[in-house]
């Protein structure tokens, strides 16, 4: 992939390549807070010439306009922080799960941090997650009393994805338990030694044929909430453009007894009776 530095003078954002952006609404401030990974920045456009791992902006409405506030890096962690996911708990407390210690296509650590009350910075406390280490592209959500973090297999934007691991906890800061490294059958994530060994092939051929992107919470007419897993089908765009990649969407199914996520099964199509 060729990195391009995109101008963003209208928002005040430094000139960087941005990816994997997420937004949280902060009820205390009445602002929508946007975080985005930032790489390949022009140092002269970053505050004090220091280009950090995440760019943060705020807006009064979800569609913007967003105005740049600051760049951020978690204290005591190395530069080059990777994919992340934001989560707001029922009490309004914000959290971030992020990837650290990226070393090429090798193992990396995943941490959970609480955010400040305005969602603009990391708090000092952090929790190291268990589970497989060749992971990125996390998602973070709550279902009933249980908190879930799903970790996508590291593929370096590789063809067909790399599996999904599931972790659960009674609180966003844990203790976290690694429940399964084979949520996406056909991809036993613990067998890989580098990200480049992720599917398809003898080691990994996931049902989703995609790398995890996000879990959408969908309110239903029945009063229940459906959870829809989404994944990016890298290198499968007809025009070979990364912003044109198709996606896989699958409904998550939860075990009625344990509450854990059941392994994916192929779904040609599904219907949700959505509350509007």
Summarize the structure.
The chain is 0% helix and 36% strand. It is globular.
Compressed to H and E, one letter per element, the order equals EEEEEEEEEEEEEEE
Biggest sheet details = 4 strands, antiparallel
End-to-end separation: 39 Å
Percent of sequence in beta strands: 35-45%
- Low-confidence runs of at least 5 consecutive residues: 1-7
Number of strands: 15
Question: Care to describe what's here?
Answer:
It is a single chain. This protein has no helices and 15 strands. The chain is mainly β. It has a four-stranded antiparallel beta sheet with strand order 1-2-3-4, with no helix packed on it. A four-stranded antiparallel beta sheet has the order 5-6-7-8, with no helix packed on it.
